[in-house]
Amino acid sequence: MWVPQYGDQTQPVYLMIANALEQDIESGRLAAGDRLPTLKDLAEALNVTPGTVGRAYDEAAKRGLVVGEVGRGTFVRQQRLSAPSVHTPATGESSQIDLSIIKPNDAHMSEWLGAAISELATSPDLGQVLDYVTEGGHTSHKQAGAAWIQRWLPDARWQQVVLTSGAQHGLLVAISSLSKNDDMVLCESLCYPGIISLAHSMGRRLHGVAMDEHGIIPDALRAACLEHRPSLLICVTTHQNPTNSIMPHARRQAIAEIAREFDLFIVDDDIYGFLEPAPDYQPLAAYAPERSVYLTSLSKSVLPALRIGYLYAPPQTLSRLSSMVRSSVWMPSPLMAQLASNLINSGMADQLVREQQEEATARQQMAQEILGKYKIRSQPNSFHIWLELPEPWTSDEFANLARNNGVTVVSGSQFLPERSHASCGVRIALMAPSRQELGFALTKLVSLLDSPEPRLFY
Q1: 386 and 377 in contact (C-beta within 8 Å)?
Q2: pLDDT of residue 6
Q3: 267 with 174: CB under 8 angstroms?
Q4: How far does CA 319 lie from the centroid of its chain?
């Protein structure tokens, strides 16, 4: 197995690995077509994390030294390619750097995903996931979902797990099952756009509840309940999208008590709960389990294409939720559910989460360094930041100008459940591009913010 011999040990470890790889290729120690060690094997040999090795391979790929092949691994290129400049995209590639979608960083995902798919393909249990499934999914898939949920709800029982085709489908199932046409549904005053589109498409009325830096304000929630008599509250209490707020324990308890007072059902959307290294914050479902549907998935934590979500619900709602799953998609893919279960049961999902947390921390530090003079809302290991724009900027104006200059961010107007007020912020997702591209894009955004006459630029 190839193991790098470090030279200059004052550099970051991933750069030392990449430099050693380049030197060994040039010296002939590594030849074209040679297979490099897996992330796990080289990480163990060097006593570093797989994420560090992944970044080294990513750097080597940018230099045109190596190429990754799905299901096979990483190989020395047959012919070295010139590394493309971030300023001059290759022919056919978009000139945009996309900071609009919150998702995990996908560097070297193909290597472990290929291994997971190969393991599934050779499994003796493959036959049972190739057919229709009754009763809402295989027991083993629900048990894996319960094991995942138990990180935040330790007493979760697999019998109360409902599988969905991702978190967005889980929201559709919950809203459809727990409210009726023309019902009032409450959410945060700045909320995930997917909630807005679902509520409107299903004929629900939507009202945003005032927030502060800790999320929904309990007094504002009580006032909204008195005025609107809602049937449902959809709430993101940890790493809220887009503001990044984390709701304190006392406020979670207060929200649960108000829900009981007004017979309000809660959809506890905990899609970003995994970003907290230690589960210090109990979900809302822990405070009001009899009236909460807890929602999570693997799309943000592991892989967007892994469209499997988990609803954890009180017994009296299970038949309604399962029926809506059948009505909408008949069944979540058993093949995807098995792949998700394998990742959870093997511990690979936890490892991937730790690597994403590590990568997010580095990118948050980069964002703080570049955008530090502006007001941003963030968490130390979040996948995104919320940038509060200085006057005279408006959200749409800045987002349009950024797009015209090659950087895509999301205008704050997209997060408004009602058009009763304007937003002066933009959401910036940090994980999709390479670190080099991210630094370039953030620096460009700063140059636009610093423009003395912004409205003259478009």
Answers
A1: yes
A2: 74
A3: yes
A4: 29
Handedness of CA 253, 153, 427, 51 (dihedral sign): positive
Say what the pLDDT of residue 110 is: 67
Residue range 29-39: mean pLDDT, rounded = 87
For residues 430 and 385, the answer to whether their CB atoms sit within 8 Å is yes
113, burial (CB in 10 Å: exposed 0-12, middle 13-18, buried 19+): buried
DSSP 1: -
Q: Residues 124, 126, 130, CA angle at the centre, nearest 5°? A: 155
Q: Identify the sign of the CA torsion 28, 42, 54, 92.
A: positive
Lowest mean pLDDT, pick from 75-84, 139-148, 180-189: 75-84
| Position with higher pLDDT, 197 vs 52 | 197
Task: Determine the Cα–Cα distance for residues 439 and 431; give it in Å rounded to an integer.
Answer: 11
What mean pLDDT is predicted for residues 337-362?
89
Of 236, 345, 350, the C-alpha closest to 302 is 350
For residue 302, the tally of other CB atoms under 10 A from its CB is 25
3-state secondary structure of 68: strand
- pTM attached to this predicted model: 0.78
User: Which DSSP category does 303 fall into?
Assistant: -
State which of 25-29, 131-135, 226-230 shows the largest mean pLDDT: 226-230
Query: 255 in helix, strand or coil?
Result: helix
Evaluate the omega torsion of the peptide bond into residue 50 and state whether it is cis, within 30 degrees of 0: no
**Count of all residues that appear for the chain in the document:** 458
> Which pLDDT score, from 0 to 100, does residue 91 have?
39
